Structures are given as C-alpha cells and as structure tokens.
Amino acid sequence: MNEVMVVAEKEIRQLAKSRNVLISAVMFIIIFGAMTGPAVLAGESTPGQTMDQLSFYLILTLGIFAGYLFTAQVFLREKQDGVVETLLCTPLSLRQIWLGKVLGIVIPASLLSYLAAVMVISVGSLAIGITVLPSPPVLFHIIFVIPAFIAAASGLMGFAQLLLGMRENQILNFAIIFGLIFLISFTRELIGPSFRVTWEVVGAALALAVIILFITSRFTRFLSRERIVTTLPD
Amino acid sequence: MRKQYLNIEYEVTITPAIEVSSLSKDFAGRTVVDSISFSVIKGEIFGYLGPNGAGKTTTMRILLGLLAPTSGRVRVLDADLARDDAARKKVGVLLENNGLYERLTAEENLRYFARLYGIENPKTRVEELLDFSGLLERSKEPVGNFSTGMKRKLGIARAILHNPEIVFLDEPTKGLDPEAQHMVRELILRLSGSGAMTVFLNSHNLDEVQRICSRVAILHQGKIQALDSVRHLTAGSGRIHFTVTLADPGKGSMARDILSGLDGISDVSLDGDKISMELVSARPHSVVSVLVRGGIEVDEARKEGQSLEEIYLAVMRQGQGDAA
Predict the structure, then answer these.
(1) What is the DSSP code (8-state) at residue B142?
(2) Structure pTM?
(3) CB contacts, 8 Å: A79 with chain B
(4) Which among B85, B97, B104 has CB closest to A14?
(5) Separation between Cα atoms, residue B228 and residue B28, nearest integer Å
(6) Structural domain that includes position A206
(7) Are the Cβ atoms of B113 and A90 closer than 8 angstroms?
C-alpha cells in the first residue's frame, strides 16, 4: 500500500503543476455550473427537486470530466513520453501502478467535483432567489458516490489507455468527450421531471460504481508489461 | 569452470548475472531475435553492439521482463524479472528515454524513485546523486528546463540511485559533451571496479565500448555474430595493420610493388612516404627485412591491432554476406 501512496502522491504533485489542465478543468466546471441557473428556473418540479436532479447528474458528469482530463495526463501522457517503460522496471506490480494512478486522479477530481457542487448550488440558489440545499441522499451522493464513480471511470479509462495503442486511444478520447457532452445535454430529458433522488437511487449508483471499479481492478490481470511496451509510440 | 594448477584440479565458480539460452523473439511472424545465447558474469561490463534494428532493444526489454520471449530462457540474477517484483529492486535501468518526469524537479524525480525502491534515508542519497550529476544547484528546477545532457546525467543518477547489483544502460553517453562522457565512463568503470555492479551496456559508441567493456557481443539481424572479450577480438583476428615510413619517398612505388608481390600481405597502399598494409600471415620484421634487402631504407615501422570499429564493420559485412 505504501508504494501505491507514493505513486498517488507523485501524480497529485504532477497534476498540481499542470497549469493548463487545471485551468481547463476549473473553467469547464465554472461554465457548466453557471448554466444551472436557467435550468433551475425552467424546472417543472419544485426548486428543491430540480436542484437535486441537477446535483445528481451534473456534478457527477463534471467530476467524471475532471477525472477524464487527469487520466489523460496520468496514464496517457506517461505512455506518450515513454516514462512508463522505466516505471515498469521498478519493483511495483502493474496493479500497484494502476491503483496508485487512479488514487492520484480521484483525490483532485473529487475536490473539483465539490467545487462544482458549490457552483451549482450557489448559482441555482441565486437564480431562484432562495438558498436551496441538496437533500441528504444527494449530499451523500456528492460526498461519497461521485468520488467512487470518478475512481471507476478513471480506472476504466486508465486501463484502456494502458492497453490500447495511440491511434485507438485517440478514437476512445473522442468517444468519451462526445459521451460526456451527451450526458450533460440530455440526461435531464432522459430521466424526466418526475425523477426523484432517493436513498435507493443513490445506493444503486454507489453499488454500480463499486462493481465497475471491482471489475476493472480484476481486468488489470489482462494487462501485461509486453502489451504496454508494444503499444508505446515509436 | 574446472582449472588445473600444479596437477591439482579445482573448481572455479563464476556466477552469471545474466544467462540467456536459445532466446528468440518474433513479432507478427518476423524474427527479431534469433536463437541467441550468452551469459554475463557478475561484476563485468558487457557491451551489446549492433546496428539499428539488430534486436538490441528487444533483447534488453526481454532481459528486463518487459517482453516475453517466444522461445528460450532468460535469467537475470537468477530470477525472471517479468514475474519477480522483488528481484527488480536489484536492477537499475537507463533506457533510451531518461525515465524522468519533466514537470517535476530533479530532486522530486529522484526522491520519487528512491521511495519506490524503498531506500532508507532517501534525502541523503538524493543529495549525493544530485551532487554527482552536477545538478545540486539546479535541484529545484523542473527537469523540462534541462538540456539533453543534464537530463541524461540525471537519468544515470536515477538508474544507480538504489545501488543495484546490475545496471542496464542504453546509450548512456548519448547527448553528453566530451567532459560529461568521460565522467560517465569513469563512473561506469568505478561502479564495476569493485565487482559490486554488473553493467550491461547497449551502445553504438564503439570507442566507448572498447575503452570500458570487458566483453562484447555483436548482434546483426537478430543473431550474435561475435561474442568475445574486447582484447581477444581486437588482437586475435590474425590481421595486423602495419605502416612503414620510408627514408626516401622516391622509392615508394618500388617498395609498394615489392610488398604487393609478397604472400601474407594485403591492401598495400602508398600515401607519400608511408606504405600501409594488412598483415594476414606475414610478420612485421619480415616485411622490414624484405624492404631493406631490396635497398629501401625504413625510417619507422608501426603495427596496430584492429580497432573494435574495424572488427564491428567486418562482422557487419560478413553478416550481410551470410544473409545474402
């Protein structure tokens, strides 16, 4: 576990120095957070329900987006630069490397998702003129379920980035960006105005995140040093 | 290995640091490494030579456990580095890429790897190596700001950070100025000098290999074409490059004609007052005697063994001939 924390700490330190990536992530969160005002006003449900719905999927999507940006830095960039080859020669197992990197992504991405939560709640409250706080299940969702989803998503993306070649990774990145834009744009329509964020919904979301994370962690056994090295760019 | 001294036979144990037997590696039906076998003795500096695409990097990656062999067996410090995570603690690596994080400072880079290798008191060791690489004053700067040479030096420092038993160096002096190259060569000799560290050196720099390696393997198209000590390779080829300087340059053509007609001499060439030749079986003193008997006075005679570069080029030509 110690080596995992060493890797995680290094990734966080490196991300903190990646000014462009951090600015992109914060700007994205501010812009989409600011767009919640009109959404709350246009909601067909009560302001509390609309805020809960927005908090449920929008903060989650923004958190995953931050995780996606960081995953590209932590997994893909290391592969592009070829530094991963040296890392593979250290005493760390592939699972330790993967886990350390995922942890190094989850911590800063979760902090940004909390920033997104503050933005969404503040802008939404300002728009309707009263302070609307999220319900207890949504609060639980923000604090615990979203970090679990970020871990699951970045773990899966990181695994794919290690497994695939550079061309396949480019295609995957386009697919992820379009997927995230689709989620932000159409989730509200898909779930409908009657959707309520209950403890059951939040529990199911947490279970789903844990299952994805568990399965991805099992998948790391299909990773091999050879696979990573032979998919490095020339 | 069995040896004999004063009719007493005794056993000498030579522990190999690397053992490679019948190693082959195919990529998509193409054989990149073709049934090679060699061993590297503990404490020696072993040079691994070959042109681009010869299979050097592939061999090194297999030794490091980064690629699996198609067939054959590889042991490094009696372990399979692909499966044995703990055994990799005894191995240091400097690949073509320096293995450094450009956004982190020199100190952060070394401290990170020191912690991964579980070095006790990493601060002292990191400072020691920053000092060694001449980067102590710039230790707080991001590596991305460094020159190619500075990165290479830091990469070497990273590779030996944990005092490995064996270190794999891929072109360690690439991009370094002559002074830094000298420093790295001295360091490699010092590391290996105590017998504590084995060095596997992948290099194109034949002069460097000749200076520091005890044994070399020359690889061509995935096959080892020559494997011997540098001393044997350069001295034991049977060919001697021989140059005589004539007292009277006007007799140059005459001397060339005499020597061209002799057996055991080839490639006779005249350049001003100097005649160069390759002695295949003739001896230097007999060449001088023939010239003196022919009335040609010799001012100076000089013999040279073949350089590693000449051996290398000859091996390459032979390899191309075999392939054709």
Answers:
(1) B
(2) 0.83
(3) none
(4) B104
(5) 32
(6) 2-230
(7) yes
Main-chain dihedrals φ then ψ at residue B182, nearest 5 degrees: -60, -45
Nearest-Cα residue of chain A relative to residue B67:
A226
The percent helix, strand, coil of chain B (3-state, each to 5) is: 35, 30, 30
Subunit contact B97:A83, Cβ cutoff 8 A: yes
Cβ density class B58-80: b for 16+ within 10 Å, e for less: bbbbbbbbbbebeebebbbbeee
What pLDDT, on the 0 to 100 scale, is given for residue B223?
A: 92
Contacts of A227 in chain B (CB under 8 A): none
Report residue A119 as tokens. Answer: 């933005």
Q: Is A91 at the interface with chain B, CB within 8 A?
A: yes
Q: Which residue of A has its CA nearest to B162?
A: A90
Q: Residue A17 and residue B142: Cβ atoms within 8 Å?
A: yes
A208 CB within 8 Å of a chain B CB: no
> Strand B215-220 and strand B45-49: pairing?
parallel
* Beta carbons of A88 and B67 less than 8 Å apart: no
Contact of B220 with B315, CB cutoff 8 Å:
yes
In the β-sheet with B265-271, what is the strand arrangement from edge to edge?
A: B265-271, B274-279, B240-246, B298-304
What's the one-letter identity of residue B306?
Q
| Average pLDDT rounded to a whole number, residues A143-157 | 95
pLDDT above 60: residue A77: yes
CB B99 within 8 Å of CB B161: no
Check A82 against B96: CB less than 8 A apart: yes
What is the pLDDT at residue B4? 55
- The pLDDT value recorded for residue A98 is 95
Q: Work out how many domains chain A is built from and give that number.
A: 1
Q: Give all domains of chain B, ordered by start, each with its CATH number.
A: 19-234 (3.40.50.300), 238-304 (3.30.70.100)
User: Complex ipTM, two decimals?
Assistant: 0.90
Is residue B101 helix, strand or coil? coil
